[in-house]
Amino acid sequence: MSTAPRVVILGGGFAGLYAARSLRNAPVSLTLVDRKNHHVFQPMLYQVATAALNPADIAAPIRSILSSQKNCKVLLAEARRVDLAASVVETDGAPIPFDYLIVGTGASHSYFGHDDWAASAPGLKTIEDALEIRRRVFVAYECAERETDPEKRRAFMTFVVIGAGPTGVEMAGALAEISRRTLARDFRTIDPKSARIILVEGVDRVLPPFPSDLSAAARAQLERLGVEVWTGTRVTGIDEGGVTLGADRVGTRTVIWAAGVQGSSLAASLGVKLDRAGRVPVNPDLSVPGAPHVFVAGDLASVQQDGAQVPGVCPAAMQAGRHAARNVAALIERRTTTPFRYVDKGTFAVIGRGAAVGDLFGWKMSGRLAWLAWLGIHIAFLIGFRNRIIVLIGWAYSYITHRRGARLITGD
Amino acid sequence: MSTAPRVVILGGGFAGLYAARSLRNAPVSLTLVDRKNHHVFQPMLYQVATAALNPADIAAPIRSILSSQKNCKVLLAEARRVDLAASVVETDGAPIPFDYLIVGTGASHSYFGHDDWAASAPGLKTIEDALEIRRRVFVAYECAERETDPEKRRAFMTFVVIGAGPTGVEMAGALAEISRRTLARDFRTIDPKSARIILVEGVDRVLPPFPSDLSAAARAQLERLGVEVWTGTRVTGIDEGGVTLGADRVGTRTVIWAAGVQGSSLAASLGVKLDRAGRVPVNPDLSVPGAPHVFVAGDLASVQQDGAQVPGVCPAAMQAGRHAARNVAALIERRTTTPFRYVDKGTFAVIGRGAAVGDLFGWKMSGRLAWLAWLGIHIAFLIGFRNRIIVLIGWAYSYITHRRGARLITGD
Questions:
Q1: CB contact under 8 A, B64 and A146
Q2: pTM above the 0.80 mark?
Q3: Which of A9, A266, B87, B147 is deepest in the core (most CB within 10 A)?
């Protein structure tokens, strides 16, 4: 149809979506490919896992986000391999030829070589993951209510979260609130308030990427909520009946994995040596060494800046997606590309109702103020009018009543 | 613990829930058993299937609905068989002894002996069914966008609904709105507006239980939305590639089953000869012939009144659940039971935005007025504060923007 350069974007996460939007006025023929039909607002996925929000509150169809962008076609397909020699992306359907490629297929959790743990300890990356974790958590209470053996009942009422990064901290805090508040009065045999929530971390403090005083504040807030924080503890075994932590054994039926990073398998076809986490070490302009027309943005890229790794957080993915798109535009206009520079505006982690820690432009805060700042920033970022309003109401409702409106167990 | 009579209720649908609530002040030890943790507001399930609403908007945890009712315990378990001789319900866990039993396990669709059609033509009874149908509908458009063979593309863009009772009519109308409005501008290759929606009914008019002038009005409104209405048409075959309707063959990849009634399999253990649809022909007081302490309420009961069958609709299930509970209370107080009488306050079927037909206390209406009446009645009935508000906002949003906020494809 047109002779416009074909730009293909793999992945509809923050990197891919921001790349597509940045090219909305560019004279290109754009195709965004994702194996899901929806973009997920990842920072709030744990709210779906803990039944505070519905899937649709934090996710939106990619097709509808981009429906007004006439130069962009959205394709539901699974990208399997990039054929750099032929300039084609191989998918589960027809191959997709490209002149320029932006890869934003992200990363998932790493089980550090113990992939057999995945069945007993699901991670939290997709809406399906969140619904599966939600199902396990609420089914555990139901099973405890039915169970007559005290030891087995104890295992059903023990929840272990592995990894105390932001996701792990948020999950542990939300699990504590479920046991202490949401379910407090709903059972007749068990007392949900007696549930144990254990947060396990290999290094010596929670939230390792945060300044150490914020780590200490987060730990204090977690413990106030009733979470047992086990730092300096390594997992050596996970099975259906429990978790082995060095010399200790904790009987539990619900383990949530929130540790490690593993780049998407697509990276293997990009012709460069990947880093230990399977990420692509890109050039300063985010292009792939040896393939100047191919860029990697978001969690799949390994970018060094000032001697440190740019973190795998949403703002970094948005900025990198936008930058990769600008460099594609530069190449099309025969200008030179520019190096990417991540601007860290701040990071937050939420512990519970009115409890959070954060760092905004270097201003450290904790407690209610941090929580309000987090709330404002995240709602502002949520894509789509409906979501913002409904998320606010959902939260207001949870906040006032301590209930969790979305507490449905679905699936098998 | 107590010597209060043990009343067991099977099923947390409208019959079971209303039975439980009616006994809230009775001196009984109540156990409500359901294999799901949530009650579903069935009349709006098609709204979840067509992505206008979230699962949590029309469902609520049974445990939380009944949390303030201190004499009632809720158990997540699958009832498998009633042992009348031993007065025990056998489940997938421990058996549950009872002094009085109210069975409200409902009915599902009947494939008229063709159970092999179920895989290609799912019915709509649970939240999981609704999400599966939603997934199929939206995936069909995605596949059509990818498909290059015009005949195959046509099949992806053809949707067949079998059965023109209220659920079938509502599904067909909503599918037409999805194609004509929701998706109208989201694709680049296909034109969603060209999708075919076919509604198939064996008898000679849609909404057979309604007065014939309302059937005619409903048909006209469906056709105005672009639905092809095939009355007097019997299905003789369904497979992955299409539907055989007598001499006709329609290529389609999406078939939705909304016909027939099949009582829950639990009925077989109640020691009476079931009717052709597998329902229990109960005594006038809703008790099971030969078992005066066992009652059946809701869709599983076959109740004759004035020479006709009491319909399997929500208001009938609510009334019967309440009545069965009253009769249990009567037996406990050594009074005589009273016969059940269904009071028909009206019925509605919705065709689309501002399009419906209804009969309220004998007052027949159609079009926008019927739709507004339906909306008001159904929101008033929705259980739980959060749901009412959020459902209203969800609808207002859909109404204003023609979008469907919950348009996520999840699952495999």
A1: no
A2: yes
A3: A9
3-state DSSP: chain A helix, strand, coil percent, rounded to 5? 35, 25, 40
Chain A residue with Cα closest to B48 = A56
Cα-based torsion angle of the residue sequence A279, A283, A286, A288 in order, rounded to the nearest 10 degrees: -70
Residue A142 predicted with pLDDT over 50 = yes
Span A100-117, pLDDT tens digits: 999 999 999 899 999 999
Which residue of chain B is at minimal alpha-carbon distance from A390? B390
User: Do A20 and A30 form a contact (C-beta atoms < 8 A)?
Assistant: yes
B15 vs B321: CA distance, rounded Å: 4
Q: Is B407 on the interface with A (CB under 8 A)?
A: yes
Average pLDDT on B104-114 reads 93
- What kind and span of H or E run contains A293? strand A291-296
| Chain A environment of B142 (Cβ under 8 Å) | 37, 76
Q: What's the token pair of residue A375?
A: 């709330």
Residues 6+ apart with CB under 8 A from B100: B5, B6, B7, B8, B28, B293, B294, B295, B328, B331, B332
Cα of B405 to nearest chain A Cα, Å: 7
Over the stretch B328-363, which tens digit does the pLDDT of each residue have?
A: 999 999 999 999 999 988 888 888 888 889 888 888
For residue A248, what are the contacts with CB-CB under 8 A and spacing of at least 6?
A233
Closest-approach residue (CA) in chain B for A130: B410
A146: nearest CB among B77, B390, B403: B77
pLDDT, residue A35, reads 94
Which amino acid, one-letter code, is at A275? D
ipTM above 0.90, yes or no: no
- A61 CB neighbours in chain B (<8 A) are 186, 407-408
